[in-house]
Design brief:
There is one protein chain. By secondary structure, this protein is of the alpha/beta class. 36% of the residues lie in helices and 9% in strands. The chain contains twelve helices and seven strands. It has helices at residues 35-44, 60-68, 71-75, 114-118, 120-127, 141-144, 151-159, 171-182, 184-189, 201-212, 241-244, 270-292, and strands at residues 52-55, 78-82, 97-98, 102-103, 136-139, 227-231, 250-254. The strands form three sheets. The chain has a three-stranded parallel β-sheet with strand order 1-2-5. A hairpin with a 3-residue loop joins strand 3 and strand 4 (102-103). The model has no long low-confidence stretch (mean pLDDT 87).
Length: 294
């Protein structure tokens, strides 16, 4: 079995570094059981054709879920994955320049996005699943790099509606800002993206909102274009790019059959996305205020 890659991410050792405002956990970690059984139970508790699964990390457990319980692929409505990098002009998003190397489209190696690179065999098993692929939406760096948290966006999300400008931010907004900005310098200093850090995982969640509530998010899939996705699995994990080669690279070919293949949006209504995120923060603020009164 190939050696997997487990490294500290740009979100820190915990994956949520950068703030001390996270609430204390009310329950301890689950020490018995396995993630794939928990996922099967949670998805199976919903009516067929209703539940979504969102993957925002390495796809090992997700691939194991569908390999062990193939009926789950039939049961779910959709799978949304944050991962991959297409490059080659798939969108006009800035994918970055690496000092001394020039243009690249991966964020972990010049070729590969981190989540896919960690377990490329798992990713390939998902994209090649004939039942699962048509239900899958892939959110690559080519899309997430269109959603940059500029200074103006940062200010609005931190301070809320205009009538609150100048007042102290709520803990929720402060925490969100600190988490967002923790890795902002990486994009500026390493990849040359100065306008602001991109948002990755929230876009994978937004796919569900688009599907069920917010058509105005307008994810652009080229009027239904679908893609066959091949993941490069040759190479070795490690610090040496020459040994890694193109390991984890996602290569796409347009599907010849309508409705068959993975959906990979080329764009979305970015302004509407920020409005929805602001609405979520307002709801959180109101809920926490109400909770504090009782």
């Amino acid at each position: 079995m190939p050696q997997r890659s487990f490294v500290e991410t740009r979100q820190g050792k915990t994956g949520l570094d950068g703030t001390n405002l996270l609430p204390e956990a009310s329950i301890g970690p689950v020490e018995n059981g396995h993630a794939i059984f928990a996922m099967r139970e949670a998805l199976g508790a919903e009516p067929a054709g209703k539940p979504w699964l969102v993957a925002t990390g390495a796809l090992t457990n997700v691939a194991l879920l569908f390999a062990t319980f193939p009926e789950v692929a039939e049961h779910i409505r959709g799978l949304s994955i944050m991962g991959g990098a297409i490059g080659n002009g798939y969108t006009d998003a800035p994918l970055g320049q690496l000092r001394g190397e020039g243009e690249r489209f991966g964020n972990h190696t010049p070729w590969a996005e981190f989540n896919i690179y960690c377990d490329p065999e798992a990713a390939q098993s998902i994209f090649s699943n004939a039942i699962l692929a048509p239900k899958t939406t892939l959110i690559p760096l080519d899309l997430t790099h269109q959603v940059l948290a500029t200074k103006a966006v940062q200010y609005k999300l931190r301070h809320g509606p205009s009538e609150l400008a100048g007042k102290k931010s709520s803990d929720t907004r402060q925490m969100f800002n600190e988490l967002l900005m923790f890795y902002a310098n990486t994009y500026a200093d390493i990849f040359g993206i100065w306008k602001g850090p991109p948002l990755h995982d929230p876009l994978a969640v937004a796919v569900i909102l688009y599907d069920e509530h917010y058509a105005e998010l307008a994810f652009d899939d080229g009027d239904g274009e679908r893609w066959d996705v091949r993941v490069i699995t040759d190479g070795l994990h490690g610090e040496d790019d020459s040994a890694s080669g193109q390991l984890g690279r996602t290569i796409i070919t347009k599907s010849k059959e309508k409705g068959v293949g993975v959906r990979i949006p080329r764009g979305l209504n970015v302004e509407q996305f920020w409005m929805i995120l602001e609405d979520c923060l307002q709801r959180a603020d109101r809920w926490l205020l109400k909770k504090s009164l009782y």
